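Quick one, T. Sequence first:
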Amino acid sequence: MFAAPRFLAVDDKAEHLTAILETFQRLGAPCMGIQFDPAQPLERLSFRGVRALFLDLHLISGVKTTDDKQHYANIASILEDNISEIGGPFILILWTEHAQLATALNDYLDQSLDPDKPWCRPLAVMSLPKEKFINVGTGVTEAADELRQAVESALDANPQLAALIGWETDVLAAAGETLSSLTSLVPAASRTTAAFGGALDEVLSRLAVEAVGKKHVADDPRAAVTSALAPILADRIVNQEGDGSVAALWTKAVTRHGQKQLPQATLAEAGGINRMLHVAVAGPERIASADWGAVSETPPNFWSDAALTDLLGVDIDHLLRAEFKVHRDHHAKCRPRLVRIGAVCDHAQKRPGPIPFLFAIEIPVAVPRLAGPDGKVVPPAAEWRSPVLTLPSVPDPFVLHVNSRFEITRPAAATETWLAIYRLREQLLMQLIGHTTTYVGRPGIVRLA
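Structure tokens:
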């Protein structure tokens, strides 16, 4: 229910922490403070949305040494243990008057942070002298405005991060405006403590019914209301007015589009971008195999010559070699999948009946496909191919190949034990469904020249 704090301060001294939070309070910027105790783990949820993390270098106050590596190691441990994988980018601001220590910490983190946790790495490590903003002896706030300017300068040093934080703020503002327009639908006479909840319930219920139909609201009321509000929210985000400083910031943040030739993305980079745009990954999002566009592992009891012949009329070797054009030497590198297609209205309204699935194969980009006698690879006309993709669990780029001729149907209950890996978002899924519809609906027409 509560939004994660974007500014977070961790300090071992209670009086310093109080002064820091009071300074942010005077600025009107919410900041969460955590008093560090090496004997107690930090609350990981507090870090899930941090954008600017303020840390005292010497959090372990009992350690007296001329070598700060032990303090650097402590900070690295804090980041690895607490920064959320889906939390987004952040900068680290080190309370120190010695700028070279921030540089040394940055170098240490580059070398020491777990390479399997790239989200723990701050986009920048900057230093601010705590003594300039608070009285470290009394803990009294002394220079709130100067702190604001220092934080803004720290963020402006990375215009890309500053622009994205500004965009995030715009999204929150658009969400607030959407909620305001929603509650404005409640009649003035019902805006009392006793009547407001019921009147708002009526508004939400009408929106949900219009979005998915009366019979289906109870299945997922949140999804029903969200489907009605999401287009409004998106429109508000896109069409928000910004002043000249916002436009100038984005001009500084997005510059390489003007190059004569943008650097070619690697396959891994392209796969990551395509995943963000076109794929919802299981874990951060809830995905069931019966969901529209879900891509599931082929159940083991399907993946045998006897079972596949019974389902599709071909064995595994024929499917991979003759249909998907993969040499026998590479069959083990390919991953069989089932893609849920069908009419979106049937899925949204949970109509009874068997659900259609298409057989597909994830083929790594490094695996060559079989060529014909002329040396050219000619996939079947029934085949649809995704853009290159990567997944968190499969970093090597691959392409999802789907054959429109190999379809099976199963009732939703029969798919409950299947493992859904990801879901094709609507734009890419509609491309697949369009290809399949065109292929299976080809009329046999003889045309005169």
